[in-house]
Amino acid sequence: MKKRSNYISWDEYFMGIALLSCERSKDPNTRVGACIVSTDNKILSIGYNGAPIGFDDDKDMPWDREGKPLDTKYLFVCHSELNAILNTRNDLRGSKMYVALFPCNECAKAIIQAGIKEVIYLDDKYADTDGVVASKRMFDACGVSYKQYEKSNKKILIEL
């Protein structure tokens, strides 16, 4: 008997984990997940965007996108990349990160500081913003490679 041939690739698997992690986010507009993987394809950490631990996302978290800064989510939300970095005690040097959305400049700094060497992202919808331009400039200067995930268009159904 031969082994099964239609199994998913490592990239499909880890991006799938990142996308599944998105589903933990309570953000009504933008859900982002991240998965950090060692050089030998072991999951080191995962994260998703949300309120900091202890900050009540029902009564304290403003989920609005527009308005005064203190009335919007942007000053409060922890991004998936930062959560994935903070959710582990593993050494992340040399690892790679799979993430649903290209990292902002603040997450790029954390990625660089953690020693992550590659970022595989699904979407780069904010490519023209100063934050993402700065991210790419920092990644280029610090030797962090990045590439867009090549969709395979496989559908995987998970029934819960």
Structure description:
With 160 residues, this protein is an alpha/beta fold. 27% of the residues lie in helices and 17% in strands. It has a five-stranded mixed beta sheet, sandwiched between helices. Strand 3, helix 3 (105-114) and strand 4 form a beta-alpha-beta unit. The two termini are 31 Å apart. The mean pLDDT is 96.
SSE run: HEEHEHEHE
Q: Roughly what is the average pLDDT, rounded to an integer?
A: 96
Number of helices: 4
Biggest sheet: strand arrangement: 2-1-3-4-5
Task: Work out the radius of gyration.
Answer: 16 Å
Overall shape: it is globular
- Residue stretches low in confidence (pLDDT < 50, at least 5 long) are none
Q: Biggest sheet, open or closed, and with what strands and sense?
A: 5 strands, mixed
Distance between the amino and carboxyl termini? 31 Å
Strand content: 15-25%
| Percentage of residues in helical conformation | 25-40%
Structural class: alpha/beta
- List the quaternary state of the chains: single chain
Number of distinct beta strands? 5
Task: Sum up the structure in keywords.
single chain; 160 residues; alpha/beta; five-stranded mixed beta sheet; 4 helices; 5 strands; globular
